[in-house]
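Archive record
______________

***
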Amino acid sequence: MPELTIPRELLPRDGRFGCGPSKVRPEAVAGLARQADVLLGTSHRQAPVRNQVRRLQQGAATLLGAPEGYEVLVAVGGATAFWDAAAFGLVDERARHYVFGEFSGKFAAATAAAPWLDAPDVVDAEPGARPVATPAPGCDVQAFTHNETSTGVMQPPVRTDDALVLVDATSAAGGLAVDLTQVDAYYFSLQKGLGSEGGLTVAVLSPAAVERIERIAASQRYVPGFLDLGSALDNSRKHQTLNTPAIATTFLAAEQIEWLLASFGSLDAVVATQRAKAASIYDWAVERDWAQPFVSDPDARSLVVATVDLAETVSAAEINRVLRANGILDTDSYRKLGRNQLRIGMFPAVDADDLAAYTACVDWIVEHLAD
């Protein structure tokens, strides 16, 4: 097909709408460049880098409203590594998992594969819906996914019994509301709402989660050194990591958190802005006869990842091909979901005006593909 050139006046100022890695603010990258000769290529055991880890820990605790007594752990490796670490160091015997997409299923797969644990209790919901949280007799962990990145469904965590509540917040942290009194481990990678790169996990831990980590670490259970949450916690208390961290990632995430606090003042204010951005996308989809929100329950529709189904007569693949050729990136549906769908990252770094420009560009493409 002939190439379509979107009029310049329709284009967003920044064309990055990916769901991970997501947009990194240019101002944060410039800040890193200004400090590169002090931070990059130096020991992570020395004050300049440890100060960045402390900055990240303190910023995360402030933004998320960590209650008194909670600790902030920083571990090398993304959420995939943390799932294995949690299977070793946070689950005593059995976990319940609420599974409603690709990422919520991965932690369940990790505990299912662990021969020292009992088979997990898995509560499933179809992609596009969310499961209902209930008490889980016989389980010492309840595992939630605050935002299912693959489907654009959010599920606020809630405490229903005495089990530890572990929440994967990789695409939720910094963009969705959370009550950490309901949570024992709120953990997340940094390459989505935290506007950074991958390779690290931050976990905000309750005293009960800290006690569980320390007790298991002192037991006879074998734990690989890289996945030892006891060692990670000891190092985090010194504002460092067990292994050499990605220093640029640490800096960029700390920059993003400080920008959120300076720009919005609180997580509640960030969430209000996210709600308005999300409404603009979902309302746009409802108003088109060739589009509709994938998630039917309005209360379950994500404020950070929008999924929009298209009619059979409109090809999402062709729309995304034209968008990419015009510098608008990464709004393909999640590959394993296999739907004719747009998936749009609306993380805090993404401007509302750019989202409006994105939808205008899609409208223009659909009109011109039909010619």
User: Anything to note?
Assistant: DSSP finds ten helices and twelve strands in the chain.
